[in-house]
Amino acid sequence: MSTPRVLLFDSGMGGLTVARSVRHELPFAHLVYSADNAAFPYGAWEEQALVQRILLVMGELIARVEPTIVVVACNTASTIALGALRERFKVPFVGTVPAIKPAAAQSKSHVIGVLATPGTVRREYTHALIHDFASHCQVLLHGAPKLAEIAESKLKGVAVNLEELRGEIAPVFKGEGVARTDVVVLGCTHYPLLAEEMAKVEPWVVRYIDPAPAIARRVAEVLKETPVVEASKPVPPHNAVLLTSNRAGAEDALPAYAKMSFHLPEFLDLRV
């Protein structure tokens, strides 16, 4: 039986949280992680320009990896470009969207917070999820301007400024007594990397929803229906990382990739 090749894509290292769950769900799969670090962070990009950027980068990645399936491990990229990606490329895609439906189902107070990037907050897709699945809840939707960068810096060894973190998450904590936030959606794959620090600064205990396990299960389901085709040429090795830039800062991230079991036999620089 051929080994499926799973390409995981994010703007930075946040998608490693999804990669970890995919590895647990599919220990036999050939994983390649890709980060468009030259364009990080995606949350600040203008919409149409970002769609074109993602299509361009994805075309290069698919040609390089010849994946059986692509996991868009980025909420911003998924909410803005998943339709365009499916239209352009024949490979199946699994996206990442804010887990608003399960949050609304699990909340007892009917007050839920959604931490996301500014880009994800602006997307009509996000507002449609709220309308369809959380209309009975008060939804505190917050585009955290620095949270993804704080998480990225943490993986590079920079200590988290807890006061700065407190300010980033504070807007999703509202209410009093039983009528206060009890569930918070982590609407960016970077955010679970800060779970330990968020627990230190949250004003009260809430349930955080990390979508990574559900995404991994969906990948497994799609692969059951997807034939594995042998690659036509040598592809990057298992657990390799492809980056769109090796500029200052990228080298600092390599130990973080290795810590997450993405060991680099070589630095694979994808220039787009």
Per-chain topology:
Elements: E1 5-10, H1 16-25, E2 30-35, H2 47-65, E3 69-72, H3 75-88, E4 93-94, H4 100-106, E5 111-116, H5 118-122, H6 124-133, E6 138-143, H7 147-155, H8 162-169, E7 175-176, E8 179-180, E9 183-187, H9 195-201, E10 207-209, H10 212-224, E11 240-243, H11 250-259, E12 268-269
Parallel strand pairs: 1-2, 1-3, 2-11, 3-4, 5-6, 5-9, 9-10, 11-12
Antiparallel strand pairs: 7-8
Helix pairs in contact: 1-10, 2-3, 4-6, 8-9
Distance between the termini: 34 Å
Could you describe the largest sheet, including whether it forms a barrel? Answer: 6 strands, parallel
Shape verdict: globular
CATH class of the largest domain: Alpha Beta
**Count of individual domains:** 2
Mean pLDDT: 91
Write structural notes for this entry.
By secondary structure, the chain is α/β, with parallel strands linked by helices. It folds into two domains: 5-96 and 213-269, Rossmann fold; 100-210, Rossmann fold. Helix content is 41%, strand content 18%. It has a six-stranded parallel β-sheet with strand order 4-3-1-2-11-12, with helices on both faces. Strands 6-5-9-10 form a four-stranded parallel β-sheet. Strand 3 (69-72), helix 3 and strand 4 form a beta-alpha-beta unit. The longest helix has 19 residues, at 47-65.
Outline:
The protein is α/β, with parallel strands linked by helices. It contains eleven helices and twelve strands. The protein is 41% helix and 18% strand.
